[in-house]
Amino acid sequence: MDCVFCRIVNKEIPAAVVYEDEEVMAFKDINPQAPVHILIIPKQHLTSIMDLDDSNSDVVKKIIKVAQNLARENNIDKKGFRVVVNTGNDGGQTVHHLHFHLLGGRFMTWPPG
Ligand code: 5GP
Ligand code: ZN
Hints:
The longest helix is centred in the middle third of the chain and has 16 residues, at 58-73. A five-stranded antiparallel beta sheet has the order 1-2-3-5-4, with helices on one face. A hairpin with a 7-residue loop joins strand 2 (24-28) and strand 3 (36-42). It has 113 residues and is an alpha+beta fold. It is built from two helices and five strands, in the order H-E-E-E-H-E-E. It has helices at 4-9, 58-73; strands at 17-20, 24-28, 36-42, 81-84, 100-104. The protein is globular, with a radius of gyration of 14 Å. It is 19% helix and 22% strand. Bound molecules: guanosine-5'-monophosphate (5GP) and zinc ion. Guanosine-5'-monophosphate (5GP) is lined by residues 4, 15, 27-31, 39, 86, 92-95. Zinc ion binds at residues 3, 5-6, 45, 97.
């Protein structure tokens, strides 16, 4: 399967990995939109949140925990941050492997573009 994030998981292409365990990986976004811009992904290939069900959604709990820890490590836990999951075409999803954007280090405007 030709999936760029699976390739990062398999170490076929390099990434600035900031966290990794058996189920989850986090790495810096190649085109950061904020001073802190980290992508947190399940290692298992799931296309989007629409692929989540009772059999595989435990990983989401883990991803939120990783997001909390990375927010603390990057000193944005108190100032605040945004977690974004773009989904599908209208959601602006460009990589079809489920990923959570952790964005922070500047004020995030609303509504998003
Ligand atoms: P999406 O638009 O699907 O929500 O987010 C995909 C994100 O993946 C984008 O922010 C993009 O910059 C990032 N990205 C795409 N290809 C790569 C890559 O090869 N390495 C890294 N580190 N990030 C990537
Ligand atoms: Zn994948």
